[in-house]
Specification:
Blueprint: H1 7-15, H2 20-26, H3 33-40
Length: about 50
């Protein structure tokens, strides 16, 4: 199964300490470069401190 996600669900799971659910549910998680960049770069948006 292939799942495509934007940044918001990933950050939401991180904030509640449940990021591991992605691997538990889907086995392998591949993050696109765009999502990786958005998560990695500092932002003024709450929750962007991954």
């Amino acid at each position: 199964m292939i799942i495509v996600s934007n940044t918001t669900p990933i950050l939401s799971l991180y904030k509640i300490g449940r990021l591991c659910l992605l691997k538990s549910l889907f086995g392998q998680v591949v993050v696109s470069n765009g999502v990786r960049d958005e998560i990695s770069l500092p932002s003024d948006k709450p929750g962007h401190d991954v």
